[in-house]
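Record 1 of the preview.
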Amino acid sequence: MAVAQHTAPVPASHSAIGDAPPAPLARPRVVMVATAFAVAGMVVFFGGLLGIYLQQRAAALSGGGTWVPEKATLPLQQPTVMVLALIGSSFMVQWAVDAIRRDDRPQAYLALGVTLLFGVAVVNMAVYLYSVMGLDIAIQTPMPMLVYVITGAHLLALIVAMVFVGLMAFRALGGQFSSRQSDGVSAAALFWHAQVLVFAIIWFAIYVTK
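->
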């Protein structure tokens, strides 16, 4: 008499011998999400400051007064150089993202390094700009204080972006980023692009329109 043979079913969670391995689980994009929230907060913060600045300037000019105090100036040359340098740095940091996604590490390291050099140049130019504006916060007008608060806050955002990019570059040197995981470099690039956009708006609202 034949004995019936029973074959145990293969659980759905296990792969049969010879099957292709399952796809790796998608990594949670925690850094990117957190950076997006930080960027949103930064945009709201600078939007409020620039709104106050423009409202105060409009009120001063509508009353027949002046906005820029005597013996003070808002030069355009230095801020224009700064905004052009920041635009160039945006191309560099995006180049780094593309290089990491292609596993081209030499290009990624070069692009991240040039991005940081652009940042150092902008910080240096900002310090020089403060020395030539001649704004005195002791005078009875909100203009100098607002200019220093807005531009100083952006300078802080730029330094944070430089630290962010530098940290991601250090992690990339350690081999933690590749074509399969590039979210850290992408998040740093997102924050960098955001502060560049913020300064472009500051450049137009404060230095161009005066």
